[in-house]
């Protein structure tokens, strides 16, 4: 089959992802074989491309956000059949979805409702799962002491899904950060009550908007550099959920307020253990919310065809830091 792959980690200006022939995926007993119809593109994949090289003689296939059709099922699969339309994240420890077909554990996917296109379905899994787990911890609602939430990076995929989930499932006041007029308008359209500029004085802007404290900050970008003002706006015993922490992090500013820190990695149930089937249940809930018009899919840029050219364009957008919503490539 055809897949987009590379061998050595590389920067964007030396883009080396190519369409190549690779062996068909080998199914495990709990796997589905999915014919890929669309893939969502994430900044994390661009970061992996810059850092991770294959073993000598090997290749890397990225892509962990997809929509497609089941073409085969393993002997221990339950709840799915050949022909089902599905969406999911795949498994970061295995080959990804930048290929004609993907082998994936059935517990981390969900069916796509008939009214939802493959393109729109592929825009939901990573942002929706990350936002859900960071905000709700699988409960489907906020902690009882959370009434005001700030989303740092409100126009990206995670931030966009977070705002919609908060407005559809909770009564929280939702503030978001955005630095450009178009991203500000997007955040307001997704449900944010207040939008402030994260390049300015965030605590001051919130106070001017009548918000003197925040109970929970969901930080999708720049957390390590913003910890000072995040600590300032959080109430004592408040909560910080961060999705971008990967290295040293200065906790000092948070300690004086006894802040609870929750890190979020959408693949931790797969890589570290946990209720792996929870992944599929959350995806099913997201799909149901779309059908009920409680959530909107977030595909804003759609590129046609899984090729080296479309993938390079998608990575240029991902690395720009200016993407609104989600970039999706149709296959």
Can you name the CATH architecture of the largest domain? Alpha-Beta Complex
Summarize the amount of helix as a percent range.
25-40%
Total count of helical runs of at least 4 residues = 11
* Principal-axis shape: globular
Order of helices and strands: EEEHEEEEHHEHEHEHEHEHEHHEHE
Q: List how many beta strands DSSP finds.
A: 15
Largest pleated sheet: 7 strands, mixed
Instruction: Kindly estimate the percentage of residues that lie in beta strands according to DSSP.
Output: 15-25%
End-to-end separation: 13 Å
Low-confidence stretches: none
Domain Enoyl reductase (ER): 10-329
Protein name: Zinc-binding alcohol dehydrogenase family protein
Pfam family, one: ADH_zinc_N
Description:
There is one protein chain. This protein is α/β, with parallel strands linked by helices and 331 residues long. The protein has two domains: 2-124 and 268-330, Medium-chain alcohol dehydrogenases, catalytic domain (Quinone Oxidoreductase, Chain A, domain 1, Alpha-Beta Complex); 128-263, Rossmann fold. Helix content is 31%, strand content 25%. The protein is built from eleven helices and 15 strands. It has helices spanning 43-51, 118-121, 125-136, 157-169, 181-189, 202-208, 223-233, 252-255, 268-271, 277-291, 308-320, and strands spanning 2-5, 18-21, 31-41, 66-73, 85-88, 101-105, 109-111, 148-152, 173-177, 194-196, 214-219, 234-242, 260-263, 299-304, 326-330. The strands form three sheets. Strands 3, 4, 5, 6, 7, 14 and 15 form a seven-stranded mixed sheet that branches. Helix 11 links the parallel strand 14 and strand 15. Helix 3 (125-136) packs across helix 4 (157-169) and helix 3 crosses helix 10. The two termini are 13 Å apart. The mean pLDDT is 95.
